[in-house]
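Data follows
____________
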Amino acid sequence: MQKLLEIQNLSVNYGAIQALQAIDLFINEGEIVTLIGANGAGKSTTLKAISRLVNPVGGRIFYQGQDVTRMAAHQVVRSGIAHSPEGRRVLTRQTVLTNLELGAYGRSDRLGIKADLEKQFLTFPRLGERRQQLAGTLSGGEQQMLAIARALMSRPKLLLLDEPSLGLAPQIVLEIFAVIRQLHQQGVTILLVEQNANLALQTANRVYILEAGQLTLTGNAAELLTDERVRQAYLG
């Protein structure tokens, strides 16, 4: 397997607080890799470092063999990495359609963008029904669908998903994860941060466990699903 992303010795600080302490991880092309851990463990910080929303104080990030540690955030998107953030962060006063079009801001292929819009409406039929509706009037589940669809409009090779199930009803969570599996089957590589550890482990190929900014365990997701330490700490 070819490595799509590799993180070496990555550290991130928020003032005097060390959020990540010299972590190493990699993602092979075509994988779903999940990061699990308690609140404040550094999961979201890892995604933000990859998408260049925070600056590392040490270490390096390689994407497709290229050092992107100091690359500008918009260049990271253009290179093929998209981030669907925790809390969705949709533009509430803009329509569904405008939110999606903004996801393709780095592209100039009008026909391709139009085709991708229709693709998102097929993947998320509710968005198609509400394309002229203001994003702020959508339900939480619909906003999460919009956040993922907006990220996909940049045609990423690597999709960073931060807490896609947070605050959603169980049925909507199942719908979101069905889409995640569908995207994976279509060839999108995914790095998933997810509070529902059970669902994350059932979905992913491999897992990294973060505790207080340090990686403490990594392995095959299916195997760790039955690991007693993991079950006691994260699966209740």
